[in-house]
Amino acid sequence: MDMETQMENTKSPLVSVVIPTKNRKNLLSMAINSVLTQTYKNIQLIVQDNNSTDGTADVMAKFQEDERVEYFRESRDLTMTENWNTGYQHVRGDYFVRLDDDNVYVNNFIESSLRAIKTNNLDLVTFSAVYLDLSNGLFGEDYLHFEADDHIHLLDENLMTYMEFRCLTDSNYSMYSTKMIKDILLSTGENMYTTNLPDRYLHYRIAHLIDDKGYRVGFSSQPMGISRFDYRPRHKSGYIFKRFDYSNILESLEIQAAEDCQMNFNMHRALTLKYFFDKHPSSLHTFFDSNVLSPENYRSYIEIGHLLESQQEYRFLDLYEYNAAAVSIIWALVKYPFKKIERENNLYFLVKFILKLVLHNLRSLRNIMFSIKNTGDTVNQEKGDQISLDIINNSYQLGSIHNVFDFKSEVIDFVNQNNSRPLRNKGH
């Protein structure tokens, strides 16, 4: 480290980066390199290893030659949430970010985050990302949530909570003031991370305290990295649909267990939101009940998530089970025609649901009649690996990647039009 860099670091805040990991040594290497090649150098990089058995420790040996890298390996398996909390305990920085081991940063992410925080007097800033999915992903292979724009939007409680529930933000690209985090933990008496969606729940708590604590939270749709879903199949070969009894799910303590949330993501979204409202009641609850997800629809929302686990069936018995579950959902939606589910009236949602059900049945009947076997999703992560390397090498060009939402109409206007207390959204 040269003298000029040393002098710069003495007057620059320390930024702690925590990368929780488990058995992903190849992806982990790219995540680490994206941190070590940042234009901002005063970094503490914490790799929190959840008892990996794939040779991660050997990979980390070379990275530890950099004095900024600290490696901690657990000798027993922790839950994901426990591992995240353990990693946070090593944080010494004035600011903190968490990077999943399968994502990478653009090389000026930290510099840009600090600049946004200083310029706008923020306690938390979140940037967007490029999302890379399987070729048959919901929004296509690669996409942005919003059109890329470096404008900083100042969020209030309603807007931030709404964006979190709809998964329109990604905590991998969030920089937090550690002073704010310590204040949050004192105010709520809870762990840094808790529930099945620990980062979402943390952001709910931050949003809830914006008015009382005067926190300033900013969001920019400018992508500052890549979030990858291209290397893990969502539908595996041989998958068989089975009905599940969700009758008591809303009273379940499941939300407090850090189980795998890859399956039935709707369930974790609904239960985390309910858990938050139960522990931190506010007027925001009324907004969600009336405009986003009515209490009468929580169970239907969860059951729909269960159906989403299967794209098509390959046996008559499975197709029967699938349709029996679908009929239960249809009946629940018909009972409350004007309640809201994912912002829509049940009747409008029901029409789309039935159309998708018909297409599902046609695909399934084709499979059954022609004895087509379930081969699962085709996974090819070469494109994702190359994009990750291009981002690390600062040669990635955003190009013409499409965005799937409009920030003004889908977020700001929707919340403003349906909330009795208008947003105090300001741009800087």
Ordered list of secondary-structure elements with their pairings:
Elements (H helix, E strand, L loop, with lengths): L2 H8 L4 E7 L3 H12 L6 E7 L6 H8 L5 E5 L6 H9 L6 E4 L5 E2 L3 H12 L3 E9 L9 E2 L9 E3 L1 H9 L8 E4 H11 L9 H11 L1 H4 L3 E12 L36 H15 L4 H8 L6 H10 L8 H20 L4 E2 L2 E2 H24 L12 H11 L14 H11 L11
Parallel strand pairs: 1-2, 1-4, 2-3, 6-10
Antiparallel strand pairs: 4-9, 5-10, 6-7, 6-9, 8-10, 11-12
Notable features of this structure?
single chain; about 425 residues; Spore Coat Polysaccharide Biosynthesis Protein SpsA, Chain A; ten-stranded mixed β-sheet; two-stranded antiparallel sheet; globular; disordered N terminus; disordered C terminus
Describe this structure in words.
- 43% of the residues lie in helices and 14% in strands.
- It is an alpha/beta fold and 428 residues long.
- It folds into two domains: 13-232 and 395-417, Spore Coat Polysaccharide Biosynthesis Protein SpsA, Chain A (Alpha-Beta Complex), CATH 3.90.550.10; 249-369, no CATH class.
- Strands 1, 2, 3, 4, 5, 6, 7, 8, 9 and 10 form a ten-stranded mixed β-sheet that branches. Strands 11-12 form a two-stranded antiparallel sheet.
- The two termini are 35 Å apart.
